[in-house]
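Request: Mind sharing a record?
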Amino acid sequence: MNITDVRVRRVAKEGKMKAVVSITIDEEFVVHDFKVIEGEKGLFIAMPSRKATDGEYRDIAHPINSATREKIQNIILEKYEQVLAEEPVEEAEN
């Protein structure tokens, strides 16, 4: 499996969610709605999920092993950091 494209949409509002991401796998399959979250130990990703009838959120797409989860997370967070670095820095008003 190769992740051939990563699209990052930053979230403008304050809070723990920093971006929503879509990935393309092997230039053939797209998965939307990964979330970049700022946690106590740094950034991590949350898998696409949906709210169930019991109020809990359930992943609707996820890797079946930790190595693949780590690979996806590393690629997404690397692209997120790249997007942050490319944005112009706003100057403070005097």
Summary: The chain has one helix and six strands. The beta strands are 3-10, 17-25, 29-39, 42-46, 49-51, 57-59. Residues 1-47 form a domain with the Arylsulfatase, C-terminal domain fold (CATH 3.30.1120.40). The first strand starts at residue 3 and ends at 10.
